[in-house]
Specification:
globular, 2 domains, single chain, alpha/beta, 25% strand, 10 helices, binds oxa(dethia)-CoA, Peroxisomal Thiolase, Chain A, domain 1, 331 residues, 31% helix, four-stranded mixed beta sheet
């Protein structure tokens, strides 16, 4: 029997309706459209405003979009992974709620948390369940409601992040398509540069901490930027080299959307033309776990069976990595 590889066979996506533009941010903090556009590439981002709706709301809508497009019976889904940095609640699994709400009643489910690398690490995880031969339908959702822990008085973070979700289905493939290789890394010495300090187990929320805004995300942007540029480019170069790929073999770079300058730096290191760099940061900002599947959803019609895609991401922790995947279908 031929080797089983894990292929993406469908994508879906959801972003909330409310559009937070740079112009609106100008009225909230000391910033301007020109600075945000030239320093990050972002023009607008989506925000989930409705009270009581969390990351699962985004995840459920992205999954339902995929289910409708693919025509799959949710009862056939065996595993639901929700990659997220902003779970609905402590203690209760966001994935379990999501799976039940989409009708994946025969699935087991869990959350996977690796900050902005959550979806990338989730691709690796989902693929292993398929490659082992044990499961045939694994739904991986990347979803984040970043607005739930952003301080809209902090111009260092509120201009970057947005809310959204994307979903992919992994299925077994016998033509050698799907996930080919991965380099996944982490370095915990980076956690001081990007974190929400209060509200977790080290420092549970207190009224004083909340009053001082310590439950919001803090980022030392410059340090994160430097590490992201170096490490994303490093793993992208390495994965190309060890798979004997040149830039001519690559259909698209699918890079985490945190800052256009970081994506451009990664593309430059592998000498890739801008037409081969997926980009949607201008309309969504940094949606953390959702950036990669949102890119796949936006570019799905341009992808052809057999296309070589190089994924790359970098995030809090620090966490980062690169995945080489062969696209499995024409849409
Ligand atoms: O997804 C997880 C990983 N996250 C990332 O990859 C994000 C990485 N970091 C970044 O993308 C960038 O560091 C930022 C976009 C966050 C900041 O851009 P920067 O080019 O590193 O700006 P900076 O912090 O060095 O600030 C440059 C100047 C400063 O003014 P002075 O000191 O030169 O007068 C800042 O005060 O820009 C000022 N500034 C702003 N001005 C207008 C900082 N933020 C803003 C702002 N609007 N929002």
């Amino acid at each position: 029997m031929s080797k089983i590889t894990a292929a993406i066979t469908a994508v879906g996506a959801y972003v909330p309706e409310y559009v937070l533009t740079n112009k609106i941010l100008e009225t909230m903090v000391d910033t301007n459209d020109e600075w945000i556009t030239t320093r990050t590439g972002i023009k607008e981002r989506r925000i989930l405003k409705e009270e009581g709706k969390g990351t699962s709301f985004l995840a459920i809508n992205a999954a339902n979009d995929l289910i409708k497009k693919r025509g799959i019976d949710p009862k056939d889904i065996e595993l639901v992974i929700v990659a997220t940095a902003t779970p609905d609640m402590k203690a209760a699994s966001t994935a379990a709620y999501t799976a039940t709400q989409i009708g994946a009643v025969n699935a087991f489910s869990f959350d996977l948390e690796a900050a902005c690398s959550s979806f990338l690490f989730g691709m690796s995880t989902a693929a292993k369940y398929i490659e082992s031969g044990r499961y045939k339908n694994v739904l991986l959702i990347g979803a984040d409601k970043n607005s739930s822990f952003i301080n809209y008085k902090d111009r260092a973070t509120c201009i970057i992040f947005g809310d959204g979700a994307g979903a992919v289905l992994f299925e077994p493939n016998h033509e050698g398509l799907g996930l080919q290789d991965e380099i996944l890394r982490s370095d915990g010495s980076g956690r001081e540069f990007l974190q929400a300090t209060y509200g977790g187990s080290s420092y549970p929320s207190t009224p004083e901490a909340v009053a001082e805004g310590k439950h919001y995300v803090f980022q030392d942007g410059k340090t994160v930027f430097k590490n992201a540029v170096f490490n994303m480019a490093d793993v992208a170069v390495k994965i190309l080299e060890r798979n004997n790929l040149t830039k001519n073999d690559i259909a698209f770079l699918v890079a985490h959307q945190a800052n256009k300058r970081i994506i451009d730096a990664t593309a430059n290191r592998i000498e890739l033309e801008s037409e081969k760099v997926m980009m949607n940061i201008e309309k969504y900002g940094n949606t953390t776990s959702a950036t990669l599947p949102l890119l796949l959803n936006d570019y799905e019609s341009q992808l052809k069976k057999g296309d070589n895609l190089i994924f790359a991401a970098f995030g809090g922790g620090f966490t980062w990595g690169s995945v080489y995947l062969k696209w499995a279908y024409n849409s």
